[in-house]
Design goal:
The chain is 34% helix and 14% strand. By secondary structure, it is an alpha/beta fold. Helix 5 links the parallel strand 4 and strand 5. It comes from Microbacterium maritypicum (Microbacterium liquefaciens). This is Arginase family protein.
């Protein structure tokens, strides 16, 4: 099992507005490394979080994004499945274009409370992490490539989506499943036997299970995500990204969150 995965852990700041996600990625990376018995490739070095605009965050993340892109490229070329443990969703600016290059027929399952489909023109917050999927789909130029067909993107568990963002999602042809629609049966119907690239932002869950920087009620339960993972044919998975575990949250012990993430992930690694 272990030899088929390339474990890649992001430790460089990519628009981090808190310090906890880098710690969370490191802790989960250590646990997954122990589970699979493989050494992780660590990309980047932690720097303090800053609340800044995307136009500042993006150039500062260049080295980390280039490193993540190269790591995915190398893993895929070697016949391994990239298993990425990242801090913020914005890390996917460096990974999704490479996924599109190697797997143009893959469905992107963006399992997230948010659509992350804003552009520089629509963003209210200026947060780079809220713009990553739109960049990967070519709605704006991040400088790190694009190539994802929005009609092959399914946002699973989406429920906190800006009005302008919703218009962009609908116009581009992205499928957005509310939590009540995010069943294994519906996901399999949309995947329709194609390969998949899986991204999970842990804020897709109902708050209280895995802490995330942005908490939105009415989310999926861990068993719902596990059921979706269990329903996917193992040989259909081309890449896995796990992002946005905010370690250090006092409401949920870090150990409990790491164990829950690893337990959920194992439904994909069977």
């Amino acid at each position: 099992m272990a030899s088929s995965y390339a474990l890649i852990v992001s430790q460089g700041r990519v628009a981090d507005r808190t310090d906890g996600a880098l710690v969370g990625a490191r802790r989960v990376g250590e646990a997954v490394s122990a589970l699979l018995g493989i050494e992780p490739l660590v990309i980047g070095s932690p720097t303090p979080s800053v609340i800044d605009d995307w136009s500042v965050a993006l150039p500062e993340a260049e080295a980390t994004l280039n490193g993540l892109r190269a790591a995915v490229q190398d893993a895929t070329s070697a016949g391994a499945t990239p298993l990425l443990i990242t801090n913020t969703c914005a890390a996917s600016l460096g990974t999704l274009p490479t996924a599109a290059e190697h797997h143009p027929d893959a469905v992107v399952l963006w399992i997230d409370a948010h659509g992350d489909f804003n552009t520089p023109e629509t963003t209210d917050s200026g947060y780079l992490g809220g713009m990553v999927l739109a960049a990967a789909c070519g709605l704006w130029d991040s400088g790190h490539g694009a190539g994802i067909d929005p009609k092959q993107v399914v946002v699973v568990g989406g429920r906190d989506i800006d009005a302008a963002e919703a218009e962009l999602l609908a116009g581009a042809g992205v499928t957005v499943l509310a939590p009540s629609e995010s069943t294994p049966e519906r996901v399999l119907e949309l995947v329709a036997g194609r390969p998949v690239w899986i991204h999970v932002d842990w804020d897709v869950l109902e708050p209280g299970y895995v802490p995330a920087a942005y908490r939105v009620g009415g989310g999926l339960l861990p068993r719902h995500v596990a059921a979706i993972f269990a329903a996917l044919p193992p040989d259909s998975v081309r890449g896995i990204e796990l992002a946005e575990f905010e370690a250090g949250d006092e409401e949920v012990p870090e150990r409990v969150s790491v164990e829950l993430i690893v337990e959920t992930l194992q439904h994909l690694l069977r």
